[in-house]
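Weekly structure sync, notes
Attendees: PL, DS, HV (note-taker this week)

Item 1: N-carbamoyl-L-amino-acid hydrolase
DS walked through the input record. Source organism listed as Micromonospora chersina. Sequence as pasted into the shared doc:
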Amino acid sequence: MLTHSVEEGTLPNRFRKLWDEIAPVGRDAGSGGYLRYALTEPELTLRGWFREQAGQRGMPVTEDGNGNLFAWWGDPVAGDAVLTGSHFDSVPHGGAYDGPLGIVSAFLAVDELRAAGATPVRPVAVAAFVEEEGGRFGVPCLGSRLLTGEIAVDRAAGLRDAAGVSFAEALGDRPAGADPGLLGRFATFVELHVEQGRALVDLGAPVAVASAIWPHGRWRFDFHGEGNHAGTTRMADRRDPMLTYAFTVLAANKEARLRDAHATVGRVAVEPNATNAVPSKVTGWLDARAAEPATLDGLVEAVRAKAAERAKRDGTELTCTQESATPLVSFDGGLADRLAALLDAPVLPTGAGHDAGVLAAHLPTAMLFVRNPTGVSHSPAESASDADCAAGVAALARVLEELACR
Ligand code: GLV
Ligand code: MN
Ligand code: MN
Ligand code: MN
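Item 1 (cont.): predicted structure, written out as tokens:
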């Protein structure tokens, strides 16, 4: 089944038509990447588009008081619902597919099912989760963490963006926090996402099912030194936090390689950030990930110890704060095997975080990955062919049919 269409054209054409509606939103003409930070104008435009798409399909939209949106095919309060969808927000200059692909594919999968005459025995909900990347307020998966109670409301409400605006202010209200009533209405979550590596290229398959997410987290390293004149301060007299920072970045890279883990310092802030001043303070954010929790702990401890040792030598001071943590996620093995058999798809782990990783602790959860020929993500070079995106839609439609329509 699932061969009819709502409109004329092939599924790749229907994908492209809907995709083109959102493609210009938040795109930076210079980099070609996206600046779709949560609750800023481009993301609000996409949220409006979400409501329009839901409206065109006769799907009522509900909000959970945490900034997460849900469009319902079927009765929102019936329970036993199948949740799908993803997020609209991007990292700075991120790719087009990370997030929005899961939402666009969900609407198209509903179209495919309807065109084939399927009706949901259990409701289907399409979600747009807020602040998945942590690109604005620093904590990834903020919307799903709030919904599940994995972050305290006070902490989330007080998170601030670079301009000092709090999450509560951006949301227009204090976030509502855990909603066991809403969560209890979902029987399963299936998030479709562009693959963020090259495994599917190597396997020659368009779609995979996820097995696990590596444990990962973010650590903020503040290096305090003494701001001073670049021309007059003798080298021996400096307390330069940039040196401690630079050494720490190299140490993180080395320690990660030793463990077959991943360590990245992709964000740095320098004060006063002047070419002719020894900095007074440097802050670097470490993103660390590993296949096993003990490996991750060992990696971060080693980086911390090396940074502290180096700070002594440089006459600087170090404070290290963990800003977010995501434990190892093993997706529901029975569900993953069932979907892999249904789709004849390979099963893969990933090092990337997702709202599915947060929800997996609360309900049976699965992920589908769509091939990314470059393997590049969190960059404008992220890509996926229309044919593979259509294969993703078809796979999600089969999954929703299996989980919601039988
Ligand atoms: C989110 O995409 C992450 O893995 O950092
Ligand atoms: Mn991402
Ligand atoms: Mn994502
Ligand atoms: Mn993500």
